[in-house]
Design a protein that fits this description.
globular
């Protein structure tokens, strides 16, 4: 059984780099990120880490 690890990335490029290195089971990220947006990062991540689970939502709910 594997333990749980949490990693944080502040740019889309960093998400892809960490995904390639760590091969995560799950990634939760924003669509709007510097350097590489979440859609582009997801595209690259799915190629480099195809077993990573992805969840998306088609509606945005802003809390004020």
């Amino acid at each position: 059984m594997r333990g749980t690890a949490l990693s944080r990335a502040t740019t889309g490029t960093e998400v892809v780099e960490k995904g390639q290195r760590d091969n995560p089971d799950l990634v939760i990220m924003d669509v709007r990120m510097p350097e590489l947006d979440g859609i582009e990062a997801l595209s690259k991540l799915k190629v480099s880490s195809p077993k990573t689970s992805v969840s998306h939502h088609d509606r945005v709910r802003l809390v004020q």
